[in-house]
Write a structure and sequence with these properties.
heterodimer; A: about 375 residues; mainly alpha; B: about 230 residues; alpha+beta; Alpha-Beta Plaits; 2 domains; 6 helices; about 15% strand
Chain lengths: ~375, ~230
């Protein structure tokens, strides 16, 4: 492990270290690879089942989280949020979904039809691809590739394409301006996002997402990261807020100046695709933060307090990872919602200045410090191996 | 050079007095913009500002009692409108059902849209003074500007919290505010004979008398059956 850390080139080759951790007997990923090897039909079956599962997850996430967002937003602003449809408005998002299904899909007359129709599909595809790599529990992961972090960085950049396509093809100045803002913003903040994730990659010595979680058996990286990980986490939260186009970085949709931003011209099901992608992205980015900094599905342990740790391990093996992953995710999502309903919007130049003059230098210094710690072996925590 | 924050007592803006409402000139809070400050103090101020905002919203979130939303149709029975809400205009009647309007017509003259029409008995036989006959309010043209309430020398008018004034016929928005035609409460009290005073109070219904438009026949519109329409 130490050799792997010392030689940056061998980072991707550290897959063999996975034997060091207690791996589940037969994970979904193992079954997947077996299915893929068993022939064309096995591969097709696996892809279809995986796609259906992820698509269902996206729709359910969109429904549940739009309701929670509206409820949370209401109470942050001394309101109640949806109250009419069902008890305390629980069926509100279902009603909204049905309404959107029945709405007419309007296309702008002078717009570029093909790109216009393609944009929301592109946007939601990027989200689905990203959701595929999120490890929900040991083995419950659609794909677990050995270059997971590279994949995350690559695919999260795809979302901006959908937005740019939507803005361009609408043939509307508000859409175009919103899309251009979104493009500039998302591409800029992606740099900080990736740099923040690289810190954890340096510490854990692997790019495989499931192994990053297993490397946190001794303690989550946010505690064990010598403070470097805390800085990285703060960078990640700020950058992911910008990446999600949420307040205080919601310039692409700034209602007061751009009506609706890049989705001004969209209606009906196509609009709901953008909407679903937005909420699923919120989940995905929180899930990634949990995976990288808060030990994914691992329960909360404090050092050598055996009694406390035993209490934390009380949950049965199937429910425990779901519970821990879910509760950590929910907490982070709540924090992002809290930010959204508290902060005012930044100006475009302030946004760019924050990224290129503040976050990026901090991120680079942080990365260099992390690399120095890893290379010189200045650990004051038990090494993972 | 550190700039000093302006002292609130040194501003040349004296406290103003608007009757019940008092206003004190508050010096603007020191802004971090346009001042020479060290990077550290700017960072600290920004951090403090962010934290304060977060704690404010969290305190609202934690306490559901801060919710101001009214669940209107459900809480119709218990709904209390705000003191200064301007709903339906009302002529105040005391416990004995007597109003204080002397029919001086100041409100009628000052009403910007002529929404008040007052007819009066020029000389009441018992008191020898003018007495109110009909206080007609045209809700359909009223802008709820509150001038009539402000100018009334006897404080007999008020804006109530009643906002449910939808009707199916526009003509029903023109009606009488007074419950009886006759002298004011004060003038009635001065009369020695109580029987005589009672006799002066001729009952006035909401839709009664030559009220403009109210129930009247118009081109192509049949006469309005007020009893039937107001039952709904």
């Amino acid at each position: 492990m130490a050799d792997a850390l010392l030689n940056p080139l061998s980072l991707t080759l550290s897959v063999q270290t996975s034997e060091a951790f207690a791996a589940p007997a037969m994970s979904l990923a193992d079954r997947a690879s077996r299915a893929l090897e068993s022939g064309v039909w096995g591969a097709v079956m696996y892809i279809v089942i995986g796609l259906v599962a992820v698509l269902t997850a996206v729709s359910v996430l969109g429904l549940v989280m739009s309701y929670i967002e509206r409820k949370v937003a209401g109470h942050f602003q001394c309101r109640l949020g949806p109250m009419r449809v069902g008890p305390h408005g629980v069926l509100q998002s279902l009603a909204d979904g049905i309404k959107l299904l029945f709405k007419e899909g309007i296309e702008p007359g002078d717009g570029d039809k093909v790109i216009f129709i393609g944009a929301p599909i592109f946007s939601i595809t990027a989200t689905i691809l990203l959701l595929a790599i999120v490890p929900l529990a040991p083995g419950i992961q659609v794909v677990d590739m050995n270059v997971g972090v590279v994949y995350i960085a690559a695919v999260s950049g795809l979302g901006v394409m959908g937005i740019l396509m939507g803005g361009w093809s609408s043939n509307n100045k508000w859409s175009l301006l919103g899309a251009m803002r979104a493009g500039a913003q998302m591409i800029s903040y992606e740099v900080s996002l990736t740099i923040a994730l690289l810190v954890v990659v340096l510490f854990s010595g692997t790019l495989k997402v499931s192994e990053i979680i297993e490397s946190q058996q001794q303690g989550w990286w946010i505690w064990r990261g010598h403070g470097v990980a805390i800085v990285a986490f703060c960078l990640y939260v700020i950058a992911s807020t910008a990446e999600l186009n949420r307040t205080p970085f919601d310039l692409p949709e700034g209602e007061s100046e751009l009506t609706g931003g890049y989705h001004t011209e969209y209606s009906g099901l196509r609009f709901s695709f953008f909407f679903l992608a937005e909420f699923a992205n919120l989940f995905v980015f929180s899930a990634l933060a949990v995976t990288f900094f808060f030990g994914g599905w691992l329960p909360f342990h404090v050092g050598n307090y055996e009694g406390f740790n035993a209490v934390m391990d009380l949950l049965p093996p199937v429910i425990s990872p779901m519970f821990w992953f879910g509760s950590k995710c929910a907490l982070l999502i709540f924090v992002l919602m809290w930010f959204r309903w508290t902060f005012p919007r930044l100006r475009m130049d302030q946004l760019m200045r924050l990224e290129w003059k503040v976050l990026l230098p901090i991120g680079f210094v942080n990365l260099i410090v992390a690399a120095t710690i890893v290379l010189t072996g200045l650990y004051f925590f038990p090494s993972a191996t | 050079m550190a700039t000093t924050t302006p002292d609130p007592t040194e501003t040349d803006c004296p406290p103003m007095d608007f009757g019940d409402l008092k206003s004190e000139c508050v010096a603007p809070r020191p802004s971090i913009m346009g001042q020479k400050r060290s990077l550290r103090s700017i960072l600290w101020l920004s951090f403090k500002g962010i934290l304060r905002g977060l704690l404010t919203t969290l305190s609202y979130f934690r306490r559901p009692s801060t919710v101001v939303t009214q669940q209107y149709p459900e809480n119709r029975e218990t709904l209390e409108m705000f003191e200064r809400y301007r709903g339906r205009l009302s002529l105040i009647h005391n416990e004995e059902g007597e109003h204080g309007c002397t029919a001086c017509q100041i409100c009628e003259r000052l009403c910007p849209n002529a929404s008040i029409i007052i007819t009066k008995d020029k000389k009441n036989e018992a008191t020898g003074k003018p007495a109110l006959d009909q206080f007609i309010w045209r809700q359909d043209t009223c802008t709820f500007c509150n001038i009539c309430v402000l100018v009334c020398p006897f404080d007999t008018l008020e804006m109530t919290g009643d906002f449910e004034s939808s009707v199916y016929d526009r003509r029903l928005l023109v009606f009488n505010l007074n419950e009886y035609a006759g002298p004011t409460a004060g003038q009635l009290d001065k009369l020695e004979d109580e029987e005589l005073a009672k006799a002066q109070m001729k009952p006035m219904k909401k839709y009664q008398g030559p009220v403009p438009m109210c129930g009247g026949e118009m081109d192509g519109i049949p006469k309005l059956d007020v009893e039937k329409s107001t039952d709904v």
